[in-house]
Amino acid sequence: MSEYVDPFAEQPPTPPEEREREAEVGADTGVSAPGRSEGLGSSAPASDDTNPEIEPQRPKNPGLTEQQYVDREVRVTKMLILEGLKDLDGQRLARCERYARWRYRAYLAGEVGSL
User: Fold this and answer.
1) In this predicted structure, what is the pLDDT of residue 44?
2) How far apart (Å, rounded) are the C-alpha atoms in residues 103 and 79?
3) Whose CA is closest to 76, among 91, 90, 93?
4) What is the pLDDT of residues 73-84, one digit of tens each?
5) Which comes out higher in pLDDT, residue 85 or 17?
6) CB 106: neighbour CB atoms within 10 A?
7) What is the pLDDT of residue 11?
8) What would the mean pLDDT of 1-11 be, rounded to a whole number?
9) Which three-class secondary structure string do you get for the chain?
10) Angle between the 92-108 and 66-82 helix axes, to the nearest 10 degrees?
């Protein structure tokens, strides 16, 4: 069984010879070593590909008006209540309607992926 190594434990600095060897291994395997792609020592700024700008996609036409969508969701919730879904405070249908309106508008705004 291997010994547990704490990833957050303070590590001794890597000697320069080992850093050079790691850089050579990275060159042979196609894996870039730290500083290699950034042009270590150059004055050119490093490119940041970690968070590319993502263009928001325009949502598809839902095929329903807001009122049709709300009516459908309320109808489904009424059926679930008749089948035993709890409505302890008697406000489930009102919450369902508010949520359906919010979700429909958020979908049109591109904040929600689907209806």
Assistant:
1) 57
2) 20
3) 93
4) 999 999 999 999
5) 85
6) 14
7) 66
8) 65
9) CCCCCCCCCCCCCCCHHHHHHHHHHHHHHCCCCCCCCCCCCCCCCCCCCCCCCCCCCCCCCCCCCHHHHHHHHHHHHHHHHHCCCCCCCCCHHHHHHHHHHHHHHHHHCCCCCCC
10) 150
Q: Are 93 and 77 in contact (CB under 8 A)?
A: yes
Structure tokens at 30: 């196609």
Q: Which amino acid belongs to residue 61?
A: N
Residue 70 near residue 101, CB atoms below 8 Å: yes
> Per-domain residue ranges for the chain?
8-39, 66-108
Q: Is the dihedral of CA 108, 67, 63, 72 positive or negative?
A: positive
Do residues 95 and 80 touch, judged by C-beta distance below 8 A?
no
From residue 91, alpha-carbon distances to 68, 74, 76, 78, 95 in Å are: 21, 12, 15, 12, 6
